[in-house]
Design the sequence.
């Protein structure tokens, strides 16, 4: 996605260890118009692949919510975001799975209410990053437990060096990412 | 906002202690089309009040992000969401303020990068709930420290019994809420 690639080239900051900071347009300050275009691009790509009848978008809080909401708005279907913290209003039965957060160095338990995902659902998973694939793997575990049909995975930015695509290959579902980032010879290389 | 009021009447669940669960359409599963309409309604109301020249929407993670992104997309301006957890990519100087979370029973530190808010900004604050006003009060502290101009506060659901509107009165800025919920005689009362 050319507009995204150019934005990453212009504004992303490498802060060491392969970690790229995109907080000026993606996950702290958010370019709302770019985010709307990202949602439209995911829909265009999965439609081109013949993926139809999506009933729900799934993601995990926090920063996955932005591209996921944009995609859900284009499709006109609900979004379900897995929650990471319990609150007093969480009184349901939950599908649960554990993910590691590389940028935080911790493990987090993801929860999705059993009221909002079931065998009748056809699910598209949307997230901001495909890096190690840990969060997505956990979400796919939740989708599997629910009996819903997984139709595809869409991530805004992929970091191929971290192996997420290989980790998720066994799910045999299309994976679309809108920009790829590599760290090579002390420079960020961004491509489609 | 009639569509929202009817949705709350149909789907909100009171789980005791005045806490209302709206996780089937607002903050776990999200009705993406309703959320788009909520964004449009905030813009319509603040425009009608003569509020113009908004340069940024501000909110706090997690559930404020949804109505805030929708509003930012209608206005075509960036959204900035205050972060609650540190991560390895947070290497800036931050404006900070503390809020209490009633549904979690904890205190949280909100952070906004000093790169994304400053004296040139005209800010509209958008959040999902106006209850005690603690989170919003903290966000307004951050807006104040940044030197930005506060133009208004918009919340999806207000719980007037918890006093948030009174707490925020000193900021002398318009407060728009799209539905109000009261808990009286063991029944939820929803109105505009």
Sequence:
């Amino acid at each position: 996605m050319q507009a995204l690639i150019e934005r990453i080239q212009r504004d992303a900051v490498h802060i060491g260890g392969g970690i790229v900071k995109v907080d000026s347009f993606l996950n702290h300050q958010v370019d709302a118009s770019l985010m709307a275009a990202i949602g439209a691009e995911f829909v265009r790509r999965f439609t081109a692949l013949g993926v139809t009848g999506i009933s729900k978008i799934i993601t995990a809080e926090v920063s996955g919510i932005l591209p996921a909401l944009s995609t859900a708005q284009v499709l006109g279907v609900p979004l379900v975001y897995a929650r990471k913290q319990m609150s007093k209003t969480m009184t349901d039965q939950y599908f649960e799975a554990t993910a590691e957060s590389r940028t935080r160095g911790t493990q987090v338990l993801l929860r999705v209410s059993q009221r909002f995902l079931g065998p009748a659902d056809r699910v598209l998973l949307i997230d901001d990053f495909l890096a190690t694939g840990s969060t997505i793997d956990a979400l796919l575990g939740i989708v599997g437990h629910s009996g819903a049909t997984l139709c595809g995975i869409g991530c805004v930015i992929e970091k191929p060096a971290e192996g997420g695509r290989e980790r998720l290959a066994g799910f045999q579902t299309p994976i679309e990412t809108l920009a790829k980032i590599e760290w090579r010879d002390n420079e960020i290389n961004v491509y489609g």
Observations:
- The longest helix of chain A spans residues 32-48.
